[in-house]
Amino acid sequence: MATFQVFAFFKGALGDGSVDLDTQAIWAYLSNSQPDKDNAKYKSQVTEIGAGNGYTAGGQALTSVTWTQQAGSPQGIWVFDSADFSWTASGGSIGPAQYVVVYAKSVSLSPSDFLIGYVDYGTPFTITDGNSLNVTVSNGFFELSGG
Questions:
Q1: Residue 147, pLDDT score
Q2: Where are the domains of the chain?
């Protein structure tokens, strides 16, 4: 997976408990609009691609989401992770898209879908009928370590 970029406002939401990676539903969606990493806060601020052909509005819920302290040495490194996920085009193409955006769904803020981060694939892509975009989350989306 390309480098995961964390939204600036998410850092504060993680610190003040507005977003709880242990308990909230974490979702991912596709976008073809460049996210504003420093100013975007809510899902509505990063345009999602249109639904259809195997892509559902809102994206998809991620599974096996964890926010855990890394085992072993050194202590104090926390990792945000999930199972790998994919979208498969069926009955036509999905896209174009360039970004996979991850967000916490239905948090206690308003609006309720809080952006966490995104992956930029570098250029727009289209998932053609019968093909898949496989997102491999190796070693987690991001880690947080002490200073």
A1: 57
A2: 4-145
